[in-house]
């Protein structure tokens, strides 16, 4: 029988990663990695390709098993718990929608599998489609939607399960620049509205600075900088006060690529 999650309080982290280690051959994806994420945060793992950020996210999801260390979600050690018992949602770079289903069927899939009452499913789907800006799209086939619209369907489907934590692995990288910048604002609005904890992975500094409450710069499987977004001036981030030389190098090498800040929504 699966254990019930422990009760959480405002001071209890929703996620604790404790001394995670993971190697793929000679590559160190997580190196004694420890970090805490608090309930209601938009927390971002930021780093270049090969830094270990997506591998660590996959360990949180249960899609990869750490060589050592603990993963604690909502007070419960889930290190040996299968993905479907962790109460997590996940949104991928690929939209991963079900092409043979309508928008309504996609968003309601999880609650249907949980055998929730039909009236409850209908209300949940309608609420989430309105939240992600797809009210009136319910009867459409997802194959007729744009990339941005399909990603909104994937987000609504993940939120329909009321996850303790929503994991997002570079979900905007396949979108064109205009849609990606619009979705940055939309994701933050949705996160604030639902008060869901978001754990987000990106290599894009603009995305991290636009949306995040806190950012951890990942380098060689370790968090080399974790800072609150309010300390990040304009769009230049924590480069003015980095906590390590690796963090400083990452921010300063890429600062010239950052566009102007997005206007306040």
Helix content: 25-40%
Round the Cα radius of gyration to an integer and report it: 18 Å
The helix-strand sequence is EEEHEEEHHHHEHEHEEH
CATH superfamily of the largest domain: P-loop containing nucleotide triphosphate hydrolases
Helix/strand structural class: alpha/beta
Number of domains: 2
Shape: globular
Number of helices: 8
Strand order of the largest sheet: 6-7-8-3-9-10
Strand content: 15-25%
> CATH topology of the largest domain, anyone?
Rossmann fold
Structure characteristics:
31% helix, disordered C terminus, Rossmann fold, 6-stranded mixed beta sheet, disordered N terminus, 265 residues, alpha/beta, 4-stranded antiparallel beta sheet
Give a description of the structure.
Helix content is 31%, strand content 24%. The N and C termini lie far apart (46 Å). The chain is of the alpha/beta class and 265 residues long. It is built from 8 helices and 10 strands. Strands 6-7-8-3-9-10 form a 6-stranded mixed β-sheet, sandwiched between helices. Strands 2-1-4-5 form a 4-stranded antiparallel β-sheet, covered by helices on one side. Strand 1 and strand 2 (27-38) form a beta hairpin. The protein folds into 2 domains: 12-87 and 164-253, Rossmann fold (3-Layer(aba) Sandwich); 91-162, no CATH class. The longest helix has 18 residues, at 177-194. Helix 4 (118-131) packs across helix 5 (147-159). The protein is globular.
Summarize, please:
Helix content is 31%, strand content 24%.
Topology summary:
Blueprint: E1 13-24, E2 27-38, E3 42-46, H1 53-61, E4 68-73, E5 76-77, E6 88-91, H2 103-107, H3 109-113, H4 118-131, H5 147-159, E7 165-169, H6 177-194, E8 198-202, H7 205-211, E9 214-219, E10 222-228, H8 245-254
Parallel strand pairs: 3-8, 3-9, 6-7, 7-8
Antiparallel strand pairs: 1-2, 1-4, 4-5, 9-10
Helix pairs in contact: 4-5
């Amino acid at each position: 029988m699966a254990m019930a999650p422990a009760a959480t309080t405002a001071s209890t982290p929703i996620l604790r990663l404790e001394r995670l280690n993971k190697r793929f051959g000679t590559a160190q994806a997580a190196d004694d990695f420890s970090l805490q994420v608090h309930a209601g945060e938009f927390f971002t793992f930021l780093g270049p390709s090969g830094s270990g950020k997506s591998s660590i996210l996959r360990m949180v999801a249960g899609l990869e098993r750490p060589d050592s260390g603990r993963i604690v979600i909502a007070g419960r050690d889930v290190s040996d718990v299968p993905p479907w018992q962790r109460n997590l949602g996940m949104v991928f770079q690929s939209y991963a929608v079900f092409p043979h289903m309508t928008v309504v069927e996609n968003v309601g899939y999880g609650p249907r599998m949980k055998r929730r009452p039909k009236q409850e499913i209908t209300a949940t789907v309608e609420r989430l489609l309105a939240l992600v800006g797809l009210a009136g799209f319910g009867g459409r086939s997802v194959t007729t939607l744009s990339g941005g619209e399909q990603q909104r369907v994937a987000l609504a489907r993940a939120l329909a399960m009321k996850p303790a934590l929503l994991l997002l692995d570079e979900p905007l990288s396949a979108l064109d620049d205009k849609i990606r910048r619009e979705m940055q604002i939309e994701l933050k609005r949705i996160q604030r509205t639902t008060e869901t904890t978001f754990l987000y992975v990106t290599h894009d500094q603009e995305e991290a600075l636009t949306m995040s409450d806190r950012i951890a710069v990942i380098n060689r499987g370790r968090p080399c900088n974790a800072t609150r977004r309010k300390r990040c001036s304009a769009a230049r981030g924590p480069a003015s006060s980095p906590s390590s030389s690796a963090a400083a190098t990452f921010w300063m090498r890429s600062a010239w690529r950052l566009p102007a800040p997005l206007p306040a929504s």
